[in-house]
Amino acid sequence: MKVCVAEKPSVAREIAQVLGANVSKNGYIEGNGYQVTWAFGHLCELKEPHEYNPGWKRWELFYLPMIPQKFGIRLKNDSGAEQQFKVIAGLIKNAEEVINCGDAGQEGELIQRWIYQKANCHCPVKRLWISSLTEEAIREGFQDLKPERNYDKLYEAGAMRAIGDWLLGMNATRAYTLRYGRNRQVLSVGRVQTPTLALVVNRYKEITNFKPEQYWELKTVYRDTTFASTKGRFSSKEEGENFLTSVRNADFYVTDVATKKGNELSPRLFDLTSLQVECNKKFSMSADDTLRTIQSLYEKKVATYPRVDTTYLPDDVFPKIPGIMQGLRDYASLTAPILAGKISKSKRVFDNSKITDHHAIIPTGVSPSGLTADEQKVFDFIVRRFLANFYPDCQFSTTTVMGKVEQVEFKTTGKQILKPGWRVLFDKQKMDDDDDKQDKDEEKTLPLFTEGEHGPHVPDLAEKWTTPPKPYTEATLLRAMETAGKMVDDDELRDVLKENGIGRPSTRASILETLYKRHYMRKERKNIIPTQTGIDLIDTINEELLKSAELTGRWEKKLRQIEQSQYDGGLFMQELKQMVTQVVTHVKNDTTSRNIAMEQTAQPSASSGANKKGKTKSDTTSHPKKSTEDHTSSAENHPTKDADAMVCPVCHKGTVIKGHSAYGCSCWKGGCQFRLPFVVMNHSLSEAEVQSLVAGLSIQVEGKQLGLVNGVIQEK
Q1: For the chain, which domains are there?
Q2: What is the 3-state secondary structure (H, E, C) of 525-586?
């Protein structure tokens, strides 16, 4: 029997249908020579500190740094996870072959490898590597299963990332908590979250310390068109008034009219970060909301794999483009012009050298149905961005008009769309932020000017003040994380800087959510503002490596190089241990008195961290989930692997939430009647069983197969 291990029940069900496995068992689906089972995200995790050394259970500076000789894994302390792992381990024990059907990325590879290690898997393992969950993609993937060894480096990079986050998170968090927490709060320090918080704090300080400076601008209005003086800003009012006086009583002369034609390229295909950025700008969706939405679209087979960092497609996708477009029946009027002619293959879209694990996010060609409002908006955005790359360039003309009054020069610029090209897809929507006033000015349409014409004008000297930088929004903060704190608009330059970005596309949203939950920063409308606790924490950290986006980005680059066999994992670990030791030593030797404010809302986490003697109150309070970022915590886990991400099986709009005696739907106020009791037939449902039921699978209770039929649990 061949055993397929998927990342979650819903994916397992899709795979089982394609393979012809249709007999529901307890924790798996069987048929046609296959047993298809599933994980619930991280069933296994790195061991707790005390499992390496009993003394490490105590929060004391004496025991730092904690650097195990060899790292080990443990089964997650969750009854549902334990139950499902037993199912997986039992199937693997009797398997002739295991097929890794996990998330096709670094995180998914790590999750699966740890499961196989814990289950003592000794049979051959193959890898299913697909970019969409369509039936065609799954069938093609099973026809081209890859040897497990092809992904050894991918796993090594994932393991190094997890170990690195454990070492830094555990040691730095305990060191800073014990030295500066004043026995009142846990001070969480992490590889990604801390430099991200530092970006927000530094921007806030720039704003609060900004001293506005007064200046004056000389402009004039001629034929209802505003012209600006080429002399720029005047630092003194007197100087500006002198020029104003000199031009007030003379005619305005048009000295030059220059028109230049140009082409505006379509916006790039979406990677995850750019999709999150644009959805935040256009729809005010958080990064986390966008990730959950695109993940749902992926699982509904209408969009390709979302956790990607490239905006390119491989060459082998090009022959499939007509079929994808033909499948977008609701967009027939938009695809018809493309399908009517020869589809061009641009290097700007198709480039194998720019592909890593997966290609850019595009529609699969499956016509969607039953989408939520957010899903429909995001899907429409993806489709139009996809089609835009096969439409003609937008053709425009830019007109620059120069004028003169006496010896003072003036200038204005306007833009006219000659042929909209791809812009017809967006109903005149702006594709970029309209915050830049200069861009707005360039978009205006000018009347027809003739060189040599002249006439009266209305000059004005306007008083202005310099403005501080703008606070981060989630859109701009995601860009800053992607480019190691450097804000750039150029696509090519941004691609280069991605090599040194902090975090991974799949984890940046959860990092932001973690910083909110820890009350290190908050939202004020769309703006992100640090709390006093967040400011004090960054001010307390002396080690630049801990809070520098650029330095942390270099570390990220080494992890990617490990994945590509360009850097030695052993050397990386040596550097990491040296860094952790250095951080702890600096904190231990610091005798300064520092005070970190404590947010009132953050008190519960403080009380659960360390007691008056600096010890944890319980084993769970020192759990790495409270202090690290990647695989040992909730900070960089895939949000879709959380139980609270279950979509209601009745209305398909709300999410399944846990009440006092039963699970229900978040849309209950809207009339959804879904209700799943905690106890069925005197059996308490585990989290894993609830997820299976909601995913449409059956469970075994008292020898009976139970499942949900129209949202009601019944015997099948």
Answers
A1: 2-144 (3.40.50.140), 158-208+471-626 (1.10.460.10), 214-266+394-465 (2.70.20.10), 272-388 (1.10.290.10), 642-715 (no CATH)
A2: CCEEEECHHHHHHHHHCCCHHHHCHHHHHHHHHHHHHHHCCCCCHHHHHHHHHHHHHHHHHH
